Amino acid sequence: MAIRYPKEVKEYIKSVIPGRRFDEVADLVNKKFKTDYSEQQMYSFAKNNKIKNGLGTGRKNPYSDVFPKEVFLYIHKNYKGVGPKEMSERLNKIFDRSYTKDQVKEFYANHSLNSGLDGRFKKGHIPINGFTSDNLPPGGFKYRFKKGQKCKNHRPVGSERVSVDGYVEIKVEEPNVWRLKQHVVWEQHNGKVPEGTKLIFLDGNKENVTIGNLEVVTNDEMLEMNRNGLRYDDPDFTRTGILIAKVNRTAAKRKRGEDN
């Protein structure tokens, strides 16, 4: 069934398509009009209206070896309320990478991602869409919020959501600060997760976020478990796998010491 777009939405879509990927177009439109259009819908709109974004065939794939598809999509899905430092820490834990704050900061800049952590604008600031209170498009005023009014989609602190990677996230602070729930739960019982370690789910279920289903392992132990298939959907088997990984890593370290 064809989608009927309001006139002001159609005009805005046409104005932002040039030079942008369709996921970016969807994001801009959804932010401005509080809608939920998808990347595919924006692509179909452009195709049906014979509008080209001008990126060319050689720039359709935005992914790279440094930021592969799963990382790219995770950042675009979760950057709101998350600064480069926290995002780099998340990526390193979730994807077993070694991103720096500066790498993620550059990624944010290259893709025009604003975490919103500092929402204050300087006097005379012009929004990215070029509209101010004096030149809003027809009907634009009805999308503005009154002082103290919250978006109808506002979610209070303590709300939960599931990320594109299947991890449960919990809102910990306004306006839009989210953290991985497993880290919040672990810290409530044991304090910060030590550097060089990761949390694993003993039954393999990322949505079963209870302290009894969480265990911390070193990066080396995690690698050993993944290499040798030592992670199971049975918590007891996984605990045994952790012990085996610890023994294997200890033996490997001793062997290297003897060789040296």
From TrEMBL:
| Gene3D superfamilies noted in UniProt | 3.90.75.20
- Which InterPro entries did the record assign? His-Me_finger_sf, HNH_nuc
**Descriptive protein name:** HNH endonuclease
Which keywords are on file for this protein?
Endonuclease, Hydrolase, Nuclease
Output the Gene Ontology terms for molecular function. Answer: endonuclease activity
Q: Which residues form the HNH nuclease domain?
A: 180-221
Source organism, top-level taxon = Bacteria
Note the SUPFAM superfamilies from the entry: His-Me finger endonucleases
